[in-house]
Amino acid sequence: IKSTLERGEFFGESSLLSGRPRSEKAIAGENCILVETPRRTMVKLMNSNDEVRSGIDWIFVVRELQRHFAPYAPLRDLRDIGSRVTTRQFDAGETVYAEGEEGAALFIIRSGAATLRREIDGRDTLVSQLRAGDLFGQMSLMGDGIRRDTAMATVAMDVIEVARPEFLDVDAVVHHGNG
Description:
Layout: H1 13-18, H2 39-48, H3 50-69, H4 79-84, E1 86-90, E2 95-97, E3 105-111, E4 113-120, E5 123-131, E6 135-136, E7 150-153, E8 157-163, H5 164-176
Antiparallel strand pairs: 1-8, 2-7, 3-6, 3-8, 4-5, 4-7
Helix pairs in contact: 2-3
């Protein structure tokens, strides 16, 4: 993703929240001043200040929408959509959705891990193991909407849930260039 940040904006929240390594390179522009805040300090600040936590959570969601669906869309076009998606938490062993259910949302793992399992020839079969940053459940937003797998949290997991209306709005941004 190539984007330019404006004065006062921050970056690096994805690896801060998910625990996964950074996947992009940051290049400072001319006359740029950066302030680095250690992870431990940011976690303390987020735990003690709801406004800081909600701001970081929101930009994380917006950037994940950009990363997965609209890499060339400006962040400003995704901001409203980012405020309408939800975040959910699942305990280890908790089912996110079951095979055969109707689905109306996809999920992006913010932290934690999940497995996708499917019954094949009468046997429970592991289909995929997912970790922070991975996307799942998107097939229910295409075609008939029936879940083909069972998704279960393997450890405590936080996800971003993108419902069909927000998914369609992201698609409009990608194809029409507006939010």
